[in-house]
Amino acid sequence: MQGIASVLSPITGLKWSDDPDDLQRYGIDWTHLWSPAPCAVVWPVTVEQVRAVVRAAATNNLALVPSGGRTGLSGGAVAANGELIVSLEKMNRVLDFNAVERTLKVEAGTVLQVIQEAAAAQGLQYPIDLAARGSCTIGGNIATNAGGIRVLRYGNTREWVVGLTVVTAQGELLELNRGLIKNSSGYDLRHLMIGSEGTLGIVVGAELQLTEPLPVSQVMLLALPDFKSVLTAFVQLRATLRLQAYEFLTDVALARVVQHGAAEPFDERHPYYVVAEFDDNEDAALQVFEQGVEGGWIADGALSTSDDHQRKFWHLRESISESIAPLKPYKNDISLRIGQLPAFLAEAQALFAERYPDFEVIWFGHIGDGNLHISIIRPAHWSEQAFAAHCAAATKELAACIQRHGGSISAEHGIGLLKRDYLDSTRSVAEIAAMRAIKTALDPQGLLNPGKVFAPDRHQ
């Protein structure tokens, strides 16, 4: 390969850097488990610049790592082997609002919160919502089919993407679906790209469906005696109320949030907590609460009476990751059918207690859609290397447990580098072979985000 300057300098107007500080900053995501070692970072501002970069990379057999907000938790945006990082953060414009279709066209680097605010300015909403809304980008959301806190009501990112603009591994431009509601004209490559983690093409733009604003809501905070009660409360609330979100956390998670500055919500600590948001219906909510107390599946609770109450209740759930971030936890993001959750959780908690008694394990997540987040805190007397090795061993056992219960090793964070060795716990041999064949067909040189999802796939 030519020197990186000779590869990139001919591209008109392209900003790039090989400064060590830039390489360090852009070469990792929130996992912080790999040492970044990219060759350079580029910041295209137009689709044509992205195409030019991809073509130059193909000519020079140079691997590419697409990069957005780098808030991922699976190593999907890590560049540790001399790759060229294609940062899309400067392609961050809201391009168009269509009042008839109620759609928003945006560039891939647009931050989720900016999209939400643009929708709100039109009296509508983009309903995908994540705790990282202020820093994650729509390109990254699309790459992992992000879900967040309102999947129970609105589904994942996939349901809200009506069009995609993608640059292929050959530098060609694909305009996928073009905003059509009905389009039965062969394979829907749009959905193939969604969730592909930048391994099949580089998403440079999207057309997003908007919807009506959320109705006036209330939030209930519940304290529960056991995990079975978490699901009992879910079933009862879902039958009685129109739920917008249903989230849970354990007492261990709450302890970290309180240590981080939040107020204790109740006089006593309880094993499990639920934050439930629903369309305003106070009488029905209180009726379920009373039934729960009488039935023994609700230990305590509070109903919001103001916006401030709602913010405080949600803070207990949404600040978990922030409260433990300085400890650099090892994270797993898993998914199961809701009915399988009690049996899985009992087996997984017993596994951690027996095999990894030194671990502080924090469970929380989007229980209404079967998505659990598991964060493991490094014991103070352990080295980072020993901790990483033990966590990898724990994840291998966890993956086997997930497989027994018919779940997925990744719910919404993607496979990336972190989970690729456990892909076969979720996908069959035939499925993985089909996925590899698709990868080879669309990226024959293996240059797009190599080593992610599968084992290293670049041709030698």
Automatic annotation (TrEMBL):
Domain FAD-binding PCMH-type residue range list: 34-213
Annotated Pfam families: FAD-oxidase_C, FAD_binding_4
Cofactors (names): FAD
Family, per entry: Belongs to the FAD-binding oxidoreductase/transferase type 4 family.
Name the UniProt record assigns to this protein: FAD-binding oxidoreductase
Entry keyword set: FAD, Flavoprotein, Oxidoreductase
Recorded superkingdom: Bacteria
